[in-house]
Specification:
about 40% helix, globular, three-stranded mixed beta sheet, Zincin-like, 3 helices, about 20% strand
Amino acid sequence: MKVEVLLERLEAVADAVGVKVSYEQLAASVGHGGLCRVKGQFRCIIDKRATTGERIQILATALGRFDTASIEMAKEVREALHTYSPTPTPLRRAS
């Protein structure tokens, strides 16, 4: 699977679990982005200057914290989530 397609599929998973993804210019001291909560809504903010590979890593790391077992996705997408999963305890979907 091409990296651009993988990123698009990860963005679809984010939408399915209620995580808003945005690409913004971040200060170098902040890094390339990550998961946060703004007014009760989960957001994954990614530096718009990040490479596609970095975007995949950041988004997959963020989504790896959610329970995605019931979401249908391609094998490569699930593997990316598993590879970058930071914790075995999933978060609940955003409401």
